[in-house]
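Model it.
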Amino acid sequence: MIWIIGEYAERIVDAGDRLEHFIDSFEEEGAMVQLQLLTSTVKLFLKKPDKAKGLVQKVLKLATEASDNPDLRDRGYVYWRLLSTDPTAARKVVLAERPVISSETFSLPPDYLTSLLENLSSLSSVYHRPPDEFVRGSRKVVFMPYEEQEDADSDGDSSDSSDEDSEDENESSEEESSEEDNKKKRKTKGKPQKQEAPKRKAQPQPTQQAPKQPPQQQPDLLGDLLGMGPSNPAPQPTAGGGNGGGGLDDLFGGAFGGGSGGGAAQQQQQQYNGPPLNTAFDSNKGQGLEMNIGFQRKGTKPTMIVQCANRGNDTVTRIDIKFNKNYLGIQPTQTVPLNGNVGPGQTQTVDLTLQLSQEPTPKNPLDLTVQMAARSMRVNAAKPPVTMFAVQIPVEIFFDNTHNATLTERNAFLGEW
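Modeled.
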């Protein structure tokens, strides 16, 4: 009722008397009633300044001096300063036009209204905006299940389709060439040209020569690396130098400091009875350096067996190996202990002791793969090349069989992890 008197004071004849009735008990009313009495009295003064001058002074004095409510005191001071400094500004603030109360619920499109109802417990229902407008530039991510068999099938299908397309293209090119030959035959009425025949036969020639080179080197190289003896005795007596040939004497001649004593280097290679070595990287990836790696526990020390073969033309003076963070915190104790420089065509096999010196970072499920980086110092290289590779380090080399308090079985170790 107090709000109605202040809002429509120009239409109510005894608006001042009615407000004065409530102002007599101003101090006994609640905070909301006091705020509304203050606002309605100011509205009455702005609309009827002659009849409500004394009444507004009484209410402002009660609100600013007799009240302990900070909201009421602040509003009283604001009204007092507005009325004393600029009544026109006070009229614009207090008697500002209110928007018409209307409901837009049923004026929304059905689809838009359905979207808002689905997000009733979010800000969309408060601001009447769909969730997409709150986050701009967002994209919906759909996670698809990964299946290796389907990927393999898709790869096979794509390869089959590519083969079929290539066959179709070859058939179409052959048909076009045959049509051109027939046209030439009709025009010249002579013998057909025989230029295409050697072109077709010349294509398989490089494929016949390509596989001849690897079989000449691989059997002998793998035989010596695994310590099984040379499978082909023919390259042993060859001692030719140069870049194109060489045989096993030139390949392993200087690996163990032998000068021209290729036979001694071969005997040392054959005497290697350690674990099998796996290729970490070949000479193409290592820029002339090939590295094979194996692992074994020698005595009480976990050891990495490193075999370095120099396939390039530059001498290797030093090799550093660094491990990335791994499941046990494995790190090498030193650089690769080479027995002097590794010249072109030479190979060295050395032992590198490992240690557990970093914080382990295991993965779930357990992954034994360790990422490594090998940096090889060269004589004529301004910047030493760095080769990245990854190998699996078996946990058995870290088992201590001399102490009963430590783990000695693989299953028990994996069970702890």
